[in-house]
Amino acid sequence: MPTITIDPVTRIEGHSKITIMMGDDGEVQDAHFHVTQFRGFEKFCEGRPFEEMPALMARICGICPVSHLITSAKACDMIMAVTIPETAEKLRRVMNLAQIVQSHALSFFHLSSPDFLLGFDSDPATRNIVGLLQRDPKMAREGIRMRQFGQQIIQWLGGKRVHPGWIVPGGVSEPLTVERRDQILATIPEAIAIVLRTLSWFKGQIENFREEIRTFANFPTLFLGLAKPDGGLALYKGWVRVVDSTGETVADHLNPLDYQEFLGEAVEPWSYLKSTYYKPMGYPDGIYRVGPLARLNLAKRCGTPLADAELAEFRELERHTVLSSFYYHYARLIEMLFAVERIQSLLREPYILSKHVRAHASPNNPEGVGIMEAPRGTLIHHYKVNDDGLITHANMIIATGHNNLAMNRGVLQVARHFVHGEKIEEGMLNRVEAVIRAFDPCLSCSTHASGQMALHLELRNRDGELLDEVWRG
Amino acid sequence: MPKVLIIGYGSPLRGDDNIGCHVAQMLEHHYHDDPEVRVIGSHQLTPEMAEDLAASEFVLFLDAAAGVPAGKIQQRSVKPQPGPLSFAHYLDPALLLSATMELYGSVPRAELLTIVGAAFELGDRLSPVVVRRLPEMFERAHAIVESHRHPVVAELLH
Questions:
Q1: Are A449 and B64 within 8 A, CB to CB?
Q2: Which of B103, B104, B82, B105 is nearest to B93 (CA)?
């Protein structure tokens, strides 16, 4: 059986690649997406004081450090058995929303919009941020402005824009000042205008991508994420909700602390990353998706006026839930709009400037679970500690793991549609990569050493002979 | 406005991948009171750094490298060069310079200084071989920065 291998990120600890197995008839038989997970992380954390965990966890990722920071802090709150001050919770929410904006902006404007603007068959040498700048400099600049919007808020609140240490067990370390609040509020109108313009543009492009919409991980799955008790969109705190592909609620008000009762983890020989599934439906029938598309599929409303208007229009795309993963991009834009609106409303709430922003306590519980919605989906941190508060066990389930089954099935679907024969064409290669991009998996935890990020694609026959090979980067 | 920008980047939890940030911290300490030098330590390169590049006359990128032998230090000039789109959140210095050129119409001179890492496993410590080479890496970085700040002096010294 000939095998096509797309090897985009050669890592020291395992490899991340796409493998497409070809049958003798020249058609795709199977496909896999392989990514690295945090092997050995439990050992790495063992023996560390629990209160050090948020700052340590934030260093996992350069794109969503705030997600790991807050989720870790929430697990520590539980170990301390404290309810953090209301103002602290709101400030954590603001920082998380800022991160949603900057992360979604990176995904939409700089990773994916070159596909929309230049086309999936365009020259890879120009289908990048530079090509975007040449084709539509205004959009490229606005993408950078949205990155700066989110990063600036994180920096203003946390002191640093990449690995801020402001969020701590028990709350946040410093209250918000009037000056900072007003600085942030002053940036809101421009951000809203940019997102609305981009949404309008994107909706106008949808008709050009009917084939991709039809084939980019477009199949029935469950959708899982946090929701408020009334069904509203929840990013910081909520119950776990699961809906099926018809929009019917499969489970609701699941306690996040019981995640091990409803989430299973399967190991496949072709991947370093465990595949999570919804336990009551078994493996692999319990396949589900998380992240922006899932959140909008399971939320009854966003809770802000402009985002709710956009959500109503989004719901018109398909009769029940929106199944095509191509629409992750659309969902990201709506979430960005919600995030900017919500930052504004949070900063206008009473007591946002309160000086009481941190609860102090020693460890009072032997374990703690933190859960929240990261840009790419539900993030869970689970720690156990001994009597001295030292970590004895750590477990994390990241969004890329939740989506692993769906990404694999998506790669297979798009490969079956676009990959034929024994030659690797640029358009098919990019579409296989693009279906992964739609999920926006985070490989930020990997090594970035110079020379490690080349893309290698191989086509081999059943005897292992090299038929075709492409290097990029 | 700072004339020189130093960007050290890498994952802080991937062993030697973080060497760029380590050296950046040493340089930050050295240039702490120097208004002409700005130092950034970052997990990875991101698009908005184009603004930082555009505001500088010279940029030094500090990174780890894969290969052999471990501890080998290499320096090369970086020119704007568009590269292919990745599904990872990743920019390389040449692509970032290209974006800077498109956005701002000019780019600073740029050098990339790397050291070959020995261990990239999960961990927040550098390998012994890289630790031993840290002083030389710092000296090389310092010399590069100074040669671009004071080209005439550097020429006389050589």
A1: yes
A2: B82
Q: Is the peptide bond before A65 cis (omega within 30 degrees of 0)?
A: no
- Are B11 and A114 within 8 A, CB to CB? no
Write out the two tokens for A453. Answer: 């990020």
Exposed/middle/buried for residue B19 (C-beta within 10 Å: 0-12, 13-18, 19+): buried
Q: Does B44 contact A at CB distance below 8 Å? A: yes
pLDDT confidence tier of residue A128, bands split at 50, 70 and 90: confident
- Cα of B131 to nearest chain A Cα, Å: 16
What pTM did the predictor assign? 0.90
Tell me which residue of A23, A68, A254, A32 sits closest to A163, measured CA to CA: A68
ipTM value greater than 0.85 = no
A167-209 pLDDT, tens digit each: 999 999 999 999 999 999 999 999 999 999 999 999 999 999 9
Q: What is the distance in angstroms between the Cα of B89 and the nearest Cα belonging to chain A?
A: 7
Query: What structural domains and CATH numbers belong to chain A?
Result: 3-36+412-472 (no CATH), 83-211+346-360 (1.10.645.10), 220-323 (no CATH)
All domains of chain B in start order, with CATH:
4-157 (3.40.50.1450)
Do the Cβ atoms of B7 and B49 come closer than 8 Å? yes
In the block, which residue shows the tokens 């290097």? A471
CA distance A27 to A388: 59
Out of B9, B12, B122, closest to residue A41 by CB: B122
Which residues of chain A make contact with B114, given a CB cutoff of 8 A? 449-450
